[in-house]
Every structure is written in structure tokens, then in C-alpha cells.
């Protein structure tokens, strides 16, 4: 069990806002941005772009000493690789994990693009390969490959990407990809390959992770314990270690009462007025109400910093070492997590001189 | 009429909230896990200094609708000229209101720095000229000039600064400054001259403000006292054929409901040291005035609410002036509207923590302002001071 787990925060791909339904930061809902009255000097028009807000989110993670930022693939949102490049450029320490799916490019091109990013940013890029996209979304991106074949292709994608990355004169003949005498040359060779994050609980997904993932990410609504058990057995067979991660929303405040009052406020704003709040799971402390205020299917932790930390420690005990947290509004909540939650995981509070 | 609304950028770190008077942002606090600028990564400092957090506050307030930020200056703070020079590169439209005391910097050098900053920023420099709170702080800077003489010096300082601004040669023989053949070189000369926000509550300050201020700036005080102060400045200015505008520096604690706002204050109040409930040092007339509006000693935090939403206890929860506004978003907007009705043309608002509250006030309070109508329709209240004197 790691003494100090790795924390990442999720970057909003479709704007950000103070409340669950508000996206008035980042130009995704321009109409929602309440204008200043006409008699108040407003110097802003034309002075800011959508990316300025994302840059602020990235800076908040950097300044609050969060380990990394996760930019998910979102076909209806900002382009994750471009956002990742910008966030990396504006930070010194932050690792940025970009989500994308194997259909976006040939594996050679994805690797080439990534080699440049690694060179430009001190090797801080990570890949989260989205293999099981919603089929309608996949088709909208020009990708018609169905079912388990997607994992077969992802396997080839990662094999080829790593092949050209590490080996000059690389040749590959597969079902989906072919390369003849490929491979990168200096200065694009010899770099660390992006850290690979994979997801899913199907047998195909776990088998892929056993062979290719550096970190396998679960969500809190999945059976994390069983998943870790199966993947641990498979990765032992493959003879390579896999780390485990968990992606979940959190709502942490000074005390439980204040956190639940905020949960109630957000619940009401998201259309829950008059409905009782669902109870958190007594064993895992997970609260399913995030499904309404954060996104479909989301389960996460609500409570004081200590309560949320205790929930995360439960997962640490199961072997989870990476937490990808999500909380809105992203800038304010990222500061909060960095200042209040993460220090609870420092082995001991030491003055640093 | 256009109302300019500034935010404040703290130059000596920040607290996470008003609940605990503990700084955790900037190098004014021990650097531990959870610290901001510098932060801690893998047991080591992350290499950032407080200016990186200031940059976050500048961008947050720029994007949420403020025209600029006040950079305060005290012995224990970062320097506002240096901060403005750095932060100018991090923003696009944001103005920097640089607080400074004329005695500490030669007017020719002040002109050179200002002109270069104007060139670097496209004219985004604003002055907040302070002539001094006096007492130990003044001697800390190595300044022995008496309180009233400091205003005479400020007048000479501005005479010289303006004299060299358009190029030379400029000669000046004053009590405090002498120059010969002075003048900014091309192409520094003839930049737009920074707007002057002029502070000071004493008689000497108000007379000097009459001569030099584009905006007369005051801390928030109970509204009738503020109105009386403005009337005095107006009177002195009119005699000199000038008409300064008025600005107020206000701390704001605004929440969705009034109850939630007072709950925040109550949480902070629980940690106030009763011995700290009264202190006044230095020869600042403004500070003595602010203390005179409250009947000390005080037992409950609501006893410091001298009129609806006007609360005089902020200095107990964070460093800085005493008065600010506490209430719902709507109530705070209404109080600001009333001040606009009193003749206020600009605000410098502030909230703790400055980053998070910039978003909140910009998104939730400023859009509710209706000041325009109110100034047209309500008469100025009677000019009288309830307690205290100028």
C-alpha cells in the first residue's frame, strides 16, 4: 500500500460552472453568463477565450500540488489532446492524461504526436485509451468496429505504438495495422512511453490491461475488489505489474453537516426539490446521488475531509493507488482538494525548508 | 457614467476562509503539505512563489468582470510595482492599481517605471497614492517626515512626476524635491498618465485630494459618515475648480442567503481573541475613525453591524480595514447600489479567499447591480456624521 497515493483531477470538457447545470465558464453556454449591467465598465469582450478557463483549471491543479490532470475523451466537448498539450505547456510538474480512442489515428501517428509532446513537456503525458465507446458515438467518429474486436484492435494499437516508439526498423503485420521498417529516430527515440491508463471490467478489458496498462482505472459503481483480484491474477501471469486507480466525484467540506447541506443544495438545483436525498452505502460510504449532480452512473464520496479520506483509504487498503477525482466548480474545488484533502495522505506533516 | 469595479490582489498571502485566521497561501506561513505557492511535491518545495497565486487571482477577477486589481503596499507585503510588472504579462485587459507612498521613491524614477509599465501594458497602470498611516511603519521605511508634511511632499511629488512626464527639460525647486533638466526620454514620454486614486481621511489629506485626485478613495464607513467625507472633498475641490470622483474599498462576504453569510462570520468569530477586540496604532486618521463608529467593548458579532449589512469586524478575521458588507447576494448588491446613489463612481471589492470569492462576487453579485436607476431617482441623504469626526 502506497503511503501517498497519486491524485489526479478531472478537467471539464464542456465548460464549467458554480452549479451542476451551469456551464457559464469556458464559453459552452454563452447565454448563461450573466452580463454586467451596462453602467459597469466591462473590459472583457474579446479578451478571453474558452481555453483561458481550461488553463486556469490546469494552473489550479499545478499550484495546488495535485499530481496530475485527466482530460477525458468527449466527442461533444473540447479536444482532449489539444487541451492536454496546452495544460502541459503551462505547468512544470503536472502530469496530464489525455483520453482518446484507437480510431482517431494510426498508432504510428498517435505515437509520433506523443513523442513530440513528451519532448516539449519533460515526459509528462499519459494516455487513457477509450476502447469501449458508446457505439453511436463511435460511429459518429467514423469507427464501426463492433464488440470484442475493439479490444483486439486496441491490443494491436498499443503493440504498434510501443513498437515504433522503442525499436528502429520496426515491422508489424496484423489484422488492423501494418508497418514496414518503421520506428522513431533521434531525437524522437529513447523517450519514456506515455503512461497508459485503461478501463473496463469485461474479460477482454482486463486481459488487455494485464498486457498493456500501467494503471487500470475503475469507477466507484463497479465491483472494484473483484476487478482487482482478477486483474492481479492475470498480470501476474503476464509477469508485469499493473497499478489500480479509481475515478470518482467527491464533495468535501469542513464537516459532514456542511458537506451534506451542499449536497442537498446541488441536488435541489439539479431538479431534486422535494425529493429525499438517497442514503450513502453504509459499507463503502459511496453516494449514488452524484448520478444526478455530476453525471449518469456516477458514485462518489460526500463528507468532511476526514470522512472522504477514510472512504479513499478503504480503497487504498484494496490496492488502489491512483485517484482521479472530479469536483465542480473545478478551480475552487481543486484548490480545496489540494489544501485540505491531499495533506491528510501525507505520511506526516513536515515543514519543508 | 461608468462604474469601475476593481478587485483586490492580496500582496501578503491569503487565508482559506474567514473561519480561521491562518494563512496557507504564500511564504508568510510555514510550508507544509497543502500549502499554496510554494507547494510541496514529494517532500520538497515545488519552486513556485506567491506571485503565481497572485496571477491566478488576477486572471480569476479579470475573467469574472473586474476591471483591475489593487495591489496594496505594507512593510510585510510583496512590492506592488514588481508584482504589476510580472502580472501584466499574465493578463490582457486587467488594470493594476499600484499602491505607493510618494516619499519612498523619487518622482523621476516613479515616472520612468510608470511610463515603461504603460508601454508594456497598453496603459493599464492606475495609482493608489497613500501618504502614510504613520507610526512605526513609517519609520520602518526610513521616513521621518511628519503626518501633515507628507501631504505637502505628495503634492510636490506629483508636480515633479507630471513635470517630467511630457519630456524635458523640466526644472523644479521645492522643499522636498529639486530637479534640473529633467524629463522622460522618447519614447517613454507622453504615455497616458495613470488615473490617481488618492487616500487619506485627515484634513491635510482631503485638501491634497482636492488638488490631485481623479478618484478620492475611502475605506467603507457607515454611509452617512462616508457621505460627509465626500462632501468635504467636493467642497475643497470645487474651490480649486476640480471635481474628483469617489471610490470605496469594501470587503464583501456574500452568500445565497443572508443566513449563510452570517454563519460564515459566526464561524470566524468563534476564534477571535477577545484581547484583540480593540487596537489602534499609528497616526492614521482613517483607522481611528473606523474604530469610532462602534461602541466598544463588543460581545457578539452582530453588535458590529452598524447598519443593515454594514459590518465593522473584518479586521478581527483577517488583516486589513474593519468595515465591509455581509449579506445575501441581493443585499450586498443593494448596498452597493446605495453607495452609487451617494455618488460612488468606483469600487475596490475584496473577499477571502481572494481567488474563490472573485468568481463568486463577479458571477453572483455584480450582475444584480441596478445603480443607474438609483442615482437618478434618490436624493443624496443628509450630510451628517453620527459618531466620530473628521
Automatic annotation (TrEMBL), chain A:
Keyword Glycoprotein applies: no
Gene3D superfamilies: Luciferase-like domain (3.20.20.30)
UniProt-listed GO biological process terms: alkanesulfonate catabolic process
UniProt keyword annotation of Flavoprotein present: yes
Domain Luciferase-like: 42-321
Disordered, as annotated region: 14-34
Keyword entries, A-Z: Flavoprotein, FMN, Monooxygenase, Oxidoreductase
InterPro entries for this protein: Luciferase-like_dom, Luciferase-like_sf, SsuD_RutA_monooxygenase
GO molecular function, one term: alkanesulfonate monooxygenase activity
Pfam families in UniProt: Bac_luciferase
Basic and acidic residues composition-biased segments: 16-27
Family matches, as PANTHER family: ALKANESULFONATE MONOOXYGENASE (PTHR42847), ALKANESULFONATE MONOOXYGENASE-RELATED (PTHR42847:SF4)
Protein name: LLM class flavin-dependent oxidoreductase
Natural source organism: Nonomuraea terrae
UniProtKB/TrEMBL annotation, chain B:
Luciferase-like domain boundaries: 41-345
Entry-linked InterPro entries: Luciferase-like_dom (IPR011251), Luciferase-like_sf (IPR036661), SsuD_RutA_monooxygenase (IPR050172)
Keyword match Transmembrane: no
Superkingdom to which the source organism belongs: Bacteria
Full protein name: LLM class flavin-dependent oxidoreductase
Keywords tagged on the record: Flavoprotein, FMN, Monooxygenase, Oxidoreductase
Gene3D superfamilies on file: Luciferase-like domain (3.20.20.30)
Pfam families, per the entry: Bac_luciferase
GO biological process: alkanesulfonate catabolic process
Example GO molecular function: alkanesulfonate monooxygenase activity
Amino acid at each position: 500500500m502506497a503511503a501517498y497515493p497519486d491524485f489526479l483531477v478531472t478537467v471539464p470538457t464542456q465548460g464549467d460552472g458554480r452549479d451542476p447545470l451551469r456551464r457559464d465558464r469556458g464559453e459552452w453556454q454563452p447565454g448563461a453568463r450573466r452580463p454586467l449591467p451596462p453602467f459597469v465598465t466591462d473590459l472583457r469582450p474579446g479578451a478571453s477565450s474558452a481555453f483561458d478557463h481550461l488553463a486556469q483549471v490546469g494552473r489550479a491543479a499545478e499550484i495546488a500540488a495535485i499530481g496530475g490532470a485527466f482530460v477525458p475523451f468527449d466527442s461533444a466537448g473540447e479536444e482532449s489532446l489539444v487541451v492536454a498539450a496546452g495544460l502541459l505547456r503551462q505547468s512544470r510538474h503536472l502530469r496530464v492524461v489525455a483520453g482518446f480512442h484507437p480510431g482517431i489515428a494510426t498508432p504510428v501517428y498517435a505515437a509520433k504526436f506523443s513523442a513530440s509532446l513528451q519532448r516539449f513537456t519533460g515526459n509528462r503525458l499519459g494516455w487513457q485509451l477509450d476502447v469501449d465507446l458508446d457505439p453511436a458515438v463511435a460511429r459518429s467518429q467514423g469507427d464501426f468496429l463492433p464488440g470484442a474486436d475493439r479490444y483486439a484492435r486496441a491490443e494491436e494499437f498499443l503493440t504498434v505504438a510501443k513498437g515504433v516508439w522503442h525499436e528502429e526498423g520496426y515491422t508489424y503485420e496484423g489484422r488492423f495495422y501494418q508497418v514496414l521498417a518503421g520506428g522513431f529516430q533521434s531525437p524522437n527515440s529513447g523517450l519514456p512511453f506515455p503512461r497508459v491508463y485503461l478501463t473496463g471490467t469485461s474479460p477482454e478489458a482486463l486481459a488487455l490491461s494485464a498486457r498493456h496498462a500501467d494503471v487500470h482505472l475503475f469507477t466507484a459503481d463497479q465491483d472494484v475488489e473483484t476487478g482487482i483480484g482478477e486483474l492481479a491474477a492475470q498480470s501476474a501471469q503476464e509477469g508485469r505489474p499493473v497499478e489500480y486507480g479509481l475515478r470518482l466525484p467527491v464533495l468535501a467540506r469542513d464537516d459532514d453537516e456542511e458537506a451534506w447541506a451542499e449536497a442537498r443544495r446541488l441536488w435541489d438545483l439539479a431538479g431534486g426539490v422535494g425529493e429525499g436525498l438517497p442514503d450513502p452505502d453504509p459499507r463503502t460510504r459511496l453516494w449514488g446521488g452524484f448520478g444526478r449532480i455530476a453525471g449518469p452512473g456516477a458514485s462518489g464520496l460526500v463528507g468532511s475531509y476526514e470522512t472522504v479520506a477514510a472512504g479513499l483509504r478503504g480503497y487504498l487498503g484494496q490496492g488502489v493507488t491512483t485517484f482521479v477525482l472530479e469536483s465542480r466548480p473545478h478551480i475552487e474545488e481543486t484548490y480545496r482538494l489540494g489544501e485540505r484533502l491531499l495533506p491528510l495522505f501525507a505520511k506526516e506533516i513536515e515543514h519543508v525548508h | 457614467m461608468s462604474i469601475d469595479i476593481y478587485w483586490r490582489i492580496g500582496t501578503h498571502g491569503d487565508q482559506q476562509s474567514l473561519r480561521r485566521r491562518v494563512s496557507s497561501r504564500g511564504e508568510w506561513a510555514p510550508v507544509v503539505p497543502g500549502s499554496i505557492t510554494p507547494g510541496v511535491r514529494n517532500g520538497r518545495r515545488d519552486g513556485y512563489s506567491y506571485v503565481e497565486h497572485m496571477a491566478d487571482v488576477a486572471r480569476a477577477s479579470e475573467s469574472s468582470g473586474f476591471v483591475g486589481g489593487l495591489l496594496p503596499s505594507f512593510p510585510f507585503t510583496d512590492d506592488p510595482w514588481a508584482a504589476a510588472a510580472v502580472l501584466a504579462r499574465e493578463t490582457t485587459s486587467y488594470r493594476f492599481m499600484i499602491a505607493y507612498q510618494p516619499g519612498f521613491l523619487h518622482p523621476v524614477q516613479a515616472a520612468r517605471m510608470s511610463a515603461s509599465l504603460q508601454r508594456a501594458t497598453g496603459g493599464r497602470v492606475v495609482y493608489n497614492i497613500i501618504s502614510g498611516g504613520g507610526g512605526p511603519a513609517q519609520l520602518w521605511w526610513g521616513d521621518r517626515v511628519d503626518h501633515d508634511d507628507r501631504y505637502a511632499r505628495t503634492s510636490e511629488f506629483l508636480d515633479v512626476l507630471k513635470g517630467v512626464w511630457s519630456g524635458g527639460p523640466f526644472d523644479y525647486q521645492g522643499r522636498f524635491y529639486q530637479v534640473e533638466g529633467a524629463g522622460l526620454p522618447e519614447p517613454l514620454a507622453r504615455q497616458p498618465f495613470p488615473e490617481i486614486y488618492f487616500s487619506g481621511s485627515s484634513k491635510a489629506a482631503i485638501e491634497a485630494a482636492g488638488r490631485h485626485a481623479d478618484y478620492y478613495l475611502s475605506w467603507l464607513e457607515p454611509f452617512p459618515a462616508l457621505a460627509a467625507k465626500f462632501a468635504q472633498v467636493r467642497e475643497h475641490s470645487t474651490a480649486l475648480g476640480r471635481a474628483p470622483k469617489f471610490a470605496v474599498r469594501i470587503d464583501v462576504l456574500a452568500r445565497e442567503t443572508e443566513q449563510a453569510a452570517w454563519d460564515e462570520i459566526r464561524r470566524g468569530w468563534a476564534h477571535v481573541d477577545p484581547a484583540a477586540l480593540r487596537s489602534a496604532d499609528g497616526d492614521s486618521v482613517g483607522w481611528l475613525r473606523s474604530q469610532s463608529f462602534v461602541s466598544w467593548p463588543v460581545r457578539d458579532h452582530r453588535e458590529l453591524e452598524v447598519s443593515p449589512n454594514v459590518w465593522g469586524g473584518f479586521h478581527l478575521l483577517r488583516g486589513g480595514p474593519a468595515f465591509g458588507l455581509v449579506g445575501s447576494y441581493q443585499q450586498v448588491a443593494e448596498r452597493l447600489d446605495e453607495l452609487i446613489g451617494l455618488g460612488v463612481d468606483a469600487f475596490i471589492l475584496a473577499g477571502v479567499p481572494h481567488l474563490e470569492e472573485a468568481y463568486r462576487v463577479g458571477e453572483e453579485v455584480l450582475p444584480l447591480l441596478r445603480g443607474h436607476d438609483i442615482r437618478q431617482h434618490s436624493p443624496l441623504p443628509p450630510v451628517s456624521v453620527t459618531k466620530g469626526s473628521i
